[in-house]
Amino acid sequence: MDYFIxxxxxxxxxxxxxxxxxxxxxxxxxxxxxxxxxxxxGAYTGAAFTVFLDLPVPGFVNLFLSCGVSFIAAALAGLLIxxxxxxxxxxxxxxxxxxxxxxxxxxxxxxxxxxGPRGFTDIPKLANIGWVYLWVVIIxxxxxxxxxxxxxxxxxxxxEDEIAAESMGIYTFKYKTLAFVIGAGFAGVAGTLYAHTQxxxxxxxxxxxxxVIILLMIxxxxxxxxxxxxxxxxxxxxxxxxxxxxxxxVSEWRMVIYSLLLISLMLARPGGIFGKHEFNVLxxxxxxxxxxxxx
Amino acid sequence: MSSPIxxxxxxxxxFGGLVAVNRxxxxxxxxxxxGVIGPNGAGKTTIFNMVTGHYEPTExxxxxxxxxINGLRPAFITQSGIARTFQNIRLFKDxxxxxxxxxxxxxxxxxxxxxxxxxxxxxxxxxxxxxDEAMELLKIFGLEDKKYxxxxxxxxxxxxxxxxxxxxxxKPKVLLLDEPAxxxxxxxxxxxxxxxxxxxxxxxxxxxxxxxDMKLVMEVCERIYVxxxxxxxAQGAPKDIQSNPKVxxxxxxxxxxxxxxxxxxxx
Lengths: 295, 267
Fold this sequence. Notes:
By secondary structure, chain A is an all-alpha fold. By secondary structure, chain B is an alpha/beta fold. Chain B folds into two domains: about 180 residues, P-loop containing nucleotide triphosphate hydrolases (Rossmann fold), CATH 3.40.50.300; about 80 residues, Rossmann fold (3-Layer(aba) Sandwich), CATH 3.40.50.300. Chain B is about 40% helix and about 25% strand. In chain B, a hairpin with a 2-residue loop joins strand 9 and strand 10. In chain B, helix 3 runs parallel beside helix 6. The radius of gyration of chain B is 19 Å and the shape is globular.
């Protein structure tokens, strides 16, 4: 049972990561491969906050504060990286963010105060499934409210056509940076929650591969779709775990099966499970309003 | 002519060794309807790109209402009153017709990011204003029953109309149209001719257009500037331009008479 709760909690953390990356990649259209870097910044900032400061307050207050601190720290890192990088486009941006993500990891690796390559140990286990899903709700409400307003539309317009957006009086650089900073900030929160779930973090846990896996989640779910990111994050967190239960052979070959499943899913639905659309329970059941079918 | 709203003072654009536009000057009164014509590659779109800030002129200055707008980002030039359409339509294809218009009004929105996320009173008031203004504009352009259609699903002629409507939604003083009739059939072109004139009268703005369709240009423009190889070779009323030997040589070919003939060669 504990194992399933742990998996649900882990899924929640990856939902936060996927939705935040979706804001950058899917909604704003800026191809970032440095998300694990912001995740690491958040994890280490949050862990350092609770371990070194050790405020005399109840655990959950401490967790909430450290989430806030790590949001700010990761958002600052996002700003620092975003301002020079967001002048680039497409593949070039991907390479630049990838480089920065690795730089962050190497810097942490060489910081002795947080354990360096040995990792950061003895982090209190403050996060539980409730706090994780509280943040899941916060980020989903945040992003979907954002998209319903003018600022969100401005961010979407950059994905649609940057030149046209600029010609319509939208200062695209500002909104690209905004999306990048908010996305990085929430990745930082996910990092803190992760650190306080695992009780141990090490730089090797935030390699480039994790950026790719988070990217896979949002591509699988459908770039630009929040519900898609949620589903993608859950599938990609649970799939490799559940394949363990199908006997010795499947368990041994599970990473291969996992890859094959991914390939076949992308062949079947090249735009991701939901494409750019949102899954609306009310509409699915036929009780929703027809008109607001556009998001 | 009233005092010029847009003044282009001998702008030059060099790309390396290539002089795309050489010391081009023009003035545009606040309600003028002026055309820029010229063969392909003459530098017309480059002129547009300099006026709208997509390129910064190598030399020369562009003034909007007497203010130097050189080197401003396109977004800020649009905000100060120049809107444009594109030669190959650049709508937000996967967004609805309504969202396309609402985006153009984005810079007028007065609530901040936090108001957006917490959906405050001001947010709702402003969203309503933007929505109503957009709907009004769509009504004028006869697109209101298509407001929830995706822009890419509109017929070509309506996409052009939507692009013009979207440019107008930025509340410009000067509207630049880059080949609005490109790819249109004669019927759509005729409608467009009406539309352009009507837009100018209704919104009381200056319109500057680049066009290959001679019939449209001759019919709609009050003054015409002719560009060839980046240089201004003639300017004046449509009648004078039609009979200008330099223009005929550079642009209209040698044997055809432009009034009855089809659109010249490179359409």
